[in-house]
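for the recovery benchmark. tokens below, seq after
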């Protein structure tokens, strides 16, 4: 299976590439649309600020490519900032429109919950992933419960039907996996999340293969 990792200058490409190779995938890391067209599925990584990433996608015209891929129902997985870019908008730094594949917006953790309890920002470390819906590619019982998060912004006002799994962070429901048709997002880093991360990436790839 060939996976196209989209290189727009804002991703932790090496760790994602190695995780996919450990699953037996042929991996192409590129911004060349003609090369990405040869892939069975696409992966959008992301590290950094939402406006910078959105600008890079626009400058390279990869935003149009991703919109075309979504219309064609090509499998797409966004990881961390890559997931956040799939939502309608973000208020990080300045209000910025996202790709709009998922309903909702990206906002910053405030550092204080509704009970007045302070908590650390960013949300960093291991947290339990609670499955709320099962897409076709995720039907079996997972071998572990925890995944690794590193983020200061999270998705809010989402569609319940699009929420696959979440984590509880001081009473805040943090979307961990979202899915809508051929598009999937993971807020955590599956490539850094031990047994559960490996399992989820493996199951997503099996879902791609079954398409």
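predicted aa per position
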């Amino acid at each position: 299976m060939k996976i196209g990792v989209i290189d727009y200058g804002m991703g932790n490409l090496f760790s994602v590439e190695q995780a996919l190779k450990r699953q037996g995938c042929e991996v192409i890391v590129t911004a060349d649309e003609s090369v990405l067209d040869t892939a069975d599925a696409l992966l959008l990584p992301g590290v950094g600020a939402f406006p910078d990433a959105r600008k890079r996608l626009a400058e390279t015209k990869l935003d149009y490519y991703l919109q075309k891929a979504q219309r064609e129902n090509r499998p797409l997985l966004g990881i961390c900032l890559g997931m956040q870019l799939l939502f309608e908008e973000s208020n990080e730094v300045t209000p910025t429109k996202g790709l709009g594949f998922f309903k909702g917006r990206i906002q910053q953790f405030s550092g204080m919950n509704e009970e007045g309890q302070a908590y650390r920002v960013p949300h960093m470390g291991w947290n339990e992933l609670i499955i709320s819906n099962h897409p076709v590619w995720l039907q079996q019982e997972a071998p572990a419960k925890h995944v690794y998060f590193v983020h200061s912004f999270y998705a809010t006002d989402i569609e319940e039907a699009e929420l696959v799994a979440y984590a509880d962070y001081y009473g805040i429901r943090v979307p961990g996996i979202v899915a809508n048709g051929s598009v999937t997002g993971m807020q955590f880093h599956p490539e850094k999340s031990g047994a559960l991360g490996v399992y989820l990436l493996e199951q997503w790839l099996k879902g791609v293969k079954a398409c």
